[in-house]
Amino acid sequence: MPEAFQRAFGPTEPFENDFGDLEMPEFVPLPYRGHRKINPRSRGSSRIFPVWLDPETGRPRKYGADSQVEYHNLALTLLAPDTVQVHEQFGPVSFVQPDGHPGKHYFDLLVTKADGHRVGIAVKPTERLKSGRFIRELESIQKTMSSDIADEVRLVTEVCFSRADAFNAVMYHRFAICRDEAVEERLSEVLASTSGETTICALAERCRAGGRAFRVIVQGMFEGRLEKLSPGRIDLFTRVRRLQ
Predict the structure, then answer these.
(1) Phi and psi (nearest 5°) for 66?
(2) Which of 4-18, 25-39, 42-56, 76-90 has the highest mean pLDDT?
(3) End-to-end distance of the chain based on CA atoms, in angstroms?
(4) CA-CA to 96 of 20 to 30 Å: which in 32, 172, 188, 213?
(5) pLDDT in tens, 39-75
(6) CATH 1.10.10 fits 3-21+180-242, yes or no
(7) What is the per-residue pLDDT across 168-191, written as a single tens digit (0 to 9) for each?
(8) Dihedral, CA atoms, 24, 25, 27, 32, nearest 10 degrees?
(9) Which residues of the chain form CATH 1.10.10?
């Protein structure tokens, strides 16, 4: 552990582990589905290609995001229980521009909900909206694009969500790629004798599964087994409560 951490919290020891190291299965992710190629080299913004579960197939899939805001919005979108399909970089969508000329647009995400409602999402940092040009373009897209493409057009910026929520969502998606049934069973045994509030650290110690316990506890928080009580980013000191 870093010396500063040990000075603040005292000497630390790794959690006891009855299970050994987690063996990650080998898999070939489903390919990127976007209609627009993302150049991985860019000096002006991030290019992120996470491998997360695809809600439609339940298999790992390669996603593509043009920026960190897109990456965070994608993580939160995939968490929504009514999201059944996500198609990033969807297009080109034909529309009539405000000046009357034909235009083409790629939605950063096209999201299909369980009721069939389709949402075309454009992700932009607020700094790039000051002129109002992009807002006017989105209004034109909503009015003039084919209704077969999407039922709604939505703009997402960095102020639409909490960075802590996005961080937690990204962590969950990384863990959800690999189930750990043995430790999940151990967590169930621990929760059966747990009442009231506790911390992730206390649960992990009782699971005796090393770092594997943290992964399974985080998954349990997103899958309805534990309620998160502490605000902010999830860490060992986050307080949780068992859900009945």
Answers:
(1) -85, -15
(2) 76-90
(3) 36
(4) 32
(5) 766 555 678 999 999 999 999 999 999 999 999 999 9
(6) yes
(7) 999 999 999 999 999 999 999 999
(8) -40
(9) 3-21+180-242
Q: What type of residue is 27?
A: F
Contact status, residue 236 vs residue 204, Cβ threshold 8 Å: yes
Residue 154 corresponds to which tokens in the numbers above?
């939505």
- Rounded CA-CA distance 102/109 in Å is 22
pLDDT single digits (tens) 210-219: 999 999 999 9
Q: Provide the 8-state DSSP code for 145.
A: S
Arithmetic mean of pLDDT, 109-138:
95
Strands 102-113 and 83-96: antiparallel
Select from 35, 44, 70, 91 the least CA-distant residue to 170.
70
Within the chain, all domains assigned CATH 3.40.1350.10 are found at: 51-163
Cα–Cα nearest to 128, from 162, 156, 100: 156
Fold of the CATH domain 51-163:
Trna Endonuclease; Chain: A, domain 1 (3.40.1350)
